[in-house]
């Protein structure tokens, strides 16, 4: 079946540091891949997505590239801010899963001033 | 668009009472999902609907949980009777498929924090 594995947190960084959160997936079809962000007390928000191999999703300085050969979709940001502190979820969906989205366990990011 | 609207934002109830959570999806979205989030179990899919029809309820924990979608703009999740282990944040999300049938991503509501004492 489909699954998503992301690095365990928490990840603690200083402001302006480089961020990488690793995500790998297993899928029987050709999934779409997503990153969601959840700020304290809120629901998840779609951060970025990619629908086919080699696509790069980007938003708010965050980027992730769909790598079919390594089944990965790592999230990166060149310079994090305190306001980026949140929980980040990697996710996938495809037709074989009935378009249900499979979410990873989430990675909590703390950014210190 | 106001987004996905959930009510109430917080609910505190006594064990054994009936609890009803409400959701209004984004207009035009044909998929609606109910999730439960806890520290121990993370984000769990309970049930989802397509065009108001339940498609997969395999995540519903037990018969105490039921969900309905009487029309395209409203859904409820009911717990009867409630138990302390049902305490969690319950999220509703809606979505639609893009023209390539690839899934558009979800829009989540702000959630209902349920506490059963």
Say how many strands of chain B there are.
11
Biggest sheet overview of chain A: 6 strands, mixed
The span between the termini of chain A is 41 Å
Question: Which range best describes the helical content of chain B: under 10%, 10-25%, 25-40%, 40-55%, 55-70% or over 70%?
Answer: under 10%
Strand content of chain A: over 45%
Show the helix and strand layout:
The complex is a heterodimer of chains A (113) and B (117).
Chain A (H helix, E strand, L loop, with lengths): L2 E4 L4 E4 L4 E3 L1 E4 L5 E7 L5 E7 L5 E4 L2 E4 L9 E3 L8 E8 L7 E3 L3 E6 L1
Parallel strand pairs in A: 2-12
Antiparallel strand pairs in A: 1-4, 3-9, 5-6, 5-10, 7-8, 8-9, 10-11, 10-12
Chain B lengths: L4 E3 L2 E4 L5 E6 L6 E8 L3 E9 L2 E4 L8 E7 L2 E6 L8 E8 L11 E2 L3 E5 L1
Parallel strand pairs in B: 2-11
Antiparallel strand pairs in B: 1-3, 3-8, 4-5, 4-9, 5-6, 7-8, 9-10, 9-11
Outline the structure in words.
The complex is a heterodimer of chains A (113) and B (117). By secondary structure, chain A is mostly beta strands. Helices cover 0% and strands 50% of the residues of chain A. In chain A, the strands form three sheets. In chain A, strands 2, 5, 6, 10, 11 and 12 form a six-stranded mixed sheet that branches. In chain A, strand 10 and strand 11 (101-103) form a beta hairpin. The N and C termini of chain A lie far apart (41 Å). With 117 residues, chain B is mostly beta strands. Chain B is globular.
């Amino acid at each position: 079946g489909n699954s998503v594995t992301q690095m365990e947190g928490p990840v603690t960084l200083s402001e302006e540091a480089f961020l990488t959160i690793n995500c790998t997936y297993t899928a029987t079809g050709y999934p779409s891949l997503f990153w969601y962000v959840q700020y304290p007390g809120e629901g998840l928000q779609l951060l970025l997505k990619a629908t086919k191999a080699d696509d790069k999703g980007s938003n708010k300085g965050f980027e992730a590239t769909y790598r079919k050969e390594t089944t990965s979709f790592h999230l990166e940001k060149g310079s994090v801010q305190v306001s980026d502190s949140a929980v980040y979820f990697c996710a996938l969906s495809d037709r074989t899963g009935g378009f249900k989205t499979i979410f990873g366990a989430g990675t909590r990011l703390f950014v210190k001033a | 668009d106001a987004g996905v609207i959930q009510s109430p934002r917080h609910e505190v109830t006594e064990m054994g009472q009936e609890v009803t959570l409400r959701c209004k999806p984004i207009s035009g979205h044909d998929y609606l999902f109910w999730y439960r989030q806890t520290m121990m179990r993370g984000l769990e899919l309970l049930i989802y609907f397509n065009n108001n029809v339940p498609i997969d309820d395999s995540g519903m924990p037990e018969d105490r949980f039921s969900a309905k979608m009487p029309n395209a703009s409203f859904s409820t999740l009911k717990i009867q009777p409630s138990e302390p282990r049902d305490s969690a944040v319950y999220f509703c999300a809606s979505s639609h498929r893009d023209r390539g049938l690839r899934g558009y991503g979800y829009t989540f509501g702000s959630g209902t924090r349920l506490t059963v004492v």
